[in-house]
Design brief:
Blueprint lengths: L9 H10 L7 H10 L2 H8 L3 E3 L4 E2 L5 H41 L13 H17 L3 H9 L8 H4 L5 H9 L3 H9 L5 H19 L21 H4 L11 H14 L5 H11 L17 H4 L2
Antiparallel strand pairs: 1-2
Helix pairs in contact: 1-2, 4-10, 4-12, 4-13, 8-10, 9-10
Length: 297
């Protein structure tokens, strides 16, 4: 089949939405947002208001402002997620560097014997060298201009400039005994640590690229804690592994350790209330407020 759909003007886009049953009280305002928010970016946010997806018919009473409210919520939610992820990521970088440096020395990460597989280790080293030599951080340039051996800086410098994706790969190839030492700092086991860091890298990429997070079916899921840490295992939703709720509740758990006065949970709950968001679509269990982690301040 040959694609032959024409591009539509803003007026035509408004007319199309109205023809499908969407209430648009202020066409000028709608055209303003359609000018700056691509029509197809907004499609994901009006899906919940469709009575019949195949025919693209909207439920009676569904309005453009309802769609816009969801979009604005998701944008603010992504920024809130990035705020939490930053704190957790910095904590992880610090723990990884501290533990390996004190167990094996400043350049332990370069040694093959600390990796599970030689091919993974060699691949990680190659990628790290590229990232190091692209860095314009003064402490990296100082090391490269001052020392000849080893070729790369100590782990406490490297941890500050390697990408989060590469840090995730490094944690994946850690030997179990070393991975457990890092994981215990957060109260995790190594299975949960490895899986959660891969998952968090994926979530951060979604947020950084302005992709929808609300009501998304997540491709890279996180492992569900079975019994420990207890407060987290008791608060996850076993039936919503592809929704964002388990990510949220794990971030709350970690922020309680990393930044005890974070206030992040309260900001999230206020955001949900302000936009009157259906949290079940995000995987929140019914009466989630009664769960231990939501009652702990």
């Amino acid at each position: 089949m040959e694609f032959n759909k024409p591009a539509r003007t803003l007026d035509q886009q408004v007319a199309l939405l109205r023809g499908r049953g969407m209430r648009i009280d202020d066409p000028r305002r709608a055209k303003h947002y359609l000018r700056h928010l691509n029509y197809y970016r907004l499609t994901a946010y009006w899906l919940p208001f469709e009575a019949e997806h195949a025919a693209h018919r909207f439920e009676e009473g569904s309005g453009f402002e309802d769609v816009l409210n969801l979009y604005v919520f998701d944008r603010e939610f992504r920024l809130l997620l990035l705020d939490a992820i930053e704190r957790v990521e910095v904590s992880l970088r610090t723990i990884w560097a501290y533990q390996l440096a004190h167990r094996y020395g400043p350049h332990a990460y370069l040694k093959r014997k600390h990796a599970r597989r030689a091919d993974w280790h060699e691949s990680n080293i190659r990628r790290l060298k590229k990232e190091i030599h692209r860095s314009d951080e003064l402490f990296i340039q100082h090391y490269l201009n001052t020392y000849e051996e080893p070729e790369l800086p100590p782990i406490w410098s490297v941890c500050e400039v390697m990408s989060f994706g590469l840090l995730s790969r490094w944690l994946t190839q850690l030997r179990p005994s070393d991975a457990n030492v890092v994981a215990k700092e957060w109260g995790f086991d190594q299975r949960v640590l490895r899986g959660f860091v891969r998952h968090l890298t994926y979530i951060r990429n979604l947020c950084a690229h302005h992709s929808r997070v609300w009501n998304r079916s997540l491709t890279v899921t996180m492992p569900i804690p079975r019994s420990k840490p207890g407060v987290l295992a008791a608060s996850v939703n076993q039936r919503a592994e592809r929704r964002i709720y388990n990510t949220i509740v794990t971030l709350v758990f970690l922020l309680n350790q990393v930044s005890p006065d974070h206030g992040w949970k309260e900001r999230l709950l206020n955001l949900l209330a302000r936009h009157d968001v259906d949290v079940e679509k995000m995987g929140f269990p019914s009466e989630f407020e009664r769960l231990a982690i939501w009652r702990t301040f």
